[in-house]
Every structure is written in structure tokens, then in C-alpha cells.
């Protein structure tokens, strides 16, 4: 099911960058929760990509209850039907009130649309947002164009790069 334009550009994110951007997201979300002093009841990461950002946000905002919802929608760069593989406890989640749901990015918005249907009162936050899906998230840090593929540090490895002025040998 991939009727979409190819990704012409690449946006390569380092560990340092994702750490800085996750912190920036956390500071933006501080005091926005419904609890005493604007605290959040819990943070739910959309696995797998939301886990590292959620951990950083949880640390910044001193939230100790962190759970996961597992949604699979891509195999490499090909999009498939979004599917929930694992959910947090229903008693904890309720309708999502006081829950901060974190993901690394929103692209078409299908993943968040699915999770929003389950928890309509939750607050959704992503590090990066592409225009098509941006309306599905309540907060984000940076936008990238729709034809850009974001490469995260956990999907990359350092590699030798030959010098620009190469040798014939
Ligand atoms: O807005 P959408 O078009 O739905 O795409 C965004 C989702 O796609 C990626 O997850 P993926 O399904 O690839 O799984 P992963 O997090 O385990 O890599 C990404 O981490 C988001 O969760
Ligand atoms: O690593 C990723 N980069 C992306 O740009 C993207 N869009 C959907 N799913 C994605 N995964
Ligand atoms: Mg994901």
C-alpha cells in the first residue's frame, strides 16, 4: 500500500540533536498537564520510535509512570495499515485524560489517528511533524517537508567516507 511520492530528501538526526529536540519538547509541555502544578499522570510512548523521546521527556518532567503502545505501520519506507500490537492498561488510560502520548514523528498522521480514537482526551506530542499529519499532534518541535525521510540515529551507523578528492589507486 504505497501510493505515495518517493522521499527526495533525507534529514539525518544525530543522538545529540534528538536529545536537544526532546528536551525542547519537554519544556514546552511543562505545566500543561491537568494534575496539581500542571503535572502529567503518565507518559505513553508509541513504540518503537517514541521510546527514546518519551524517556527524555519523562526525565525532564519528572514523570515516573511510563508505558508503551505498540503501533506498526511501516516496513522500511513502505506504509501499511496501522495496527495496534500492544496497549497499556485500560484502567490507567481511561479516555486518555492526563496522559501524554509521545512519538518521534508524525508523517501521514495515520498512527496518531488510530491512537487518538482509543484515547480521545490524551495530549499528543511529537518531535518532528510533516505537514500532512501535523494536525494530529498537539505539539511538535520542528516541521520537515512531506518528501523528506527522517533518518534517526538508531537506524544509522558511522561509516567510512572516502575523501572528496579521491585517489585512483
Ligand atoms: O504518521 P504516520 O504516517 O503514521 O507515520 C509515523 C509513524 O511511523 C513510524 O513508526 P513505524 O510504524 O515505522 O514503527 P517504529 O516506530 O517501530 O519504527 C514513526 O515512528 C511513527 O510512529
Ligand atoms: O524513520 C522514519 N522516518 C520517516 O520520515 C518516517 N515517516 C514515517 N515513518 C518514518 N520513519
Ligand atoms: Mg513509530
TrEMBL record:
Pathway(s) per entry: Purine metabolism; XMP biosynthesis via salvage pathway; XMP from xanthine: step 1/1; Purine metabolism; GMP biosynthesis via salvage pathway; GMP from guanine: step 1/1
Principal EC category: transferase
GO BP field: GMP salvage; purine ribonucleoside salvage; XMP salvage
Domain Phosphoribosyltransferase: 14-160
Sequence positions that bind 5-phospho-alpha-D-ribose 1-diphosphate: 48-49, 103-111
Residues bound to xanthine: 107, 150
A molecular function (GO) term: magnesium ion binding
Known catalytic reactions: IMP + diphosphate = hypoxanthine + 5-phospho-alpha-D-ribose 1-diphosphate; GMP + diphosphate = guanine + 5-phospho-alpha-D-ribose 1-diphosphate; XMP + diphosphate = xanthine + 5-phospho-alpha-D-ribose 1-diphosphate
Topology in membrane: Peripheral membrane protein
Keywords in alphabetical order: Cell membrane, Glycosyltransferase, Magnesium, Membrane, Metal-binding, Purine salvage, Transferase
Pfam (any one): Pribosyltran
EC number in record: 2.4.2.22
Annotated residues for binding of guanine: 107, 150
Residues holding GMP: 107-111, 149-150
Location(s) in or outside the cell: Cell membrane
Task of the protein: Purine salvage pathway enzyme that catalyzes the transfer of the ribosyl-5-phosphate group from 5-phospho-alpha-D-ribose 1-diphosphate (PRPP) to the N9 position of the 6-oxopurines guanine and xanthine to form the corresponding ribonucleotides GMP (guanosine 5'-monophosphate) and XMP (xanthosine 5'-monophosphate), with the release of PPi. To a lesser extent, also acts on hypoxanthine.
Quaternary structure (record): Homotetramer.
Protein name per UniProt: Xanthine-guanine phosphoribosyltransferase
Species name: Hasllibacter halocynthiae
Gene this chain is encoded by: gpt
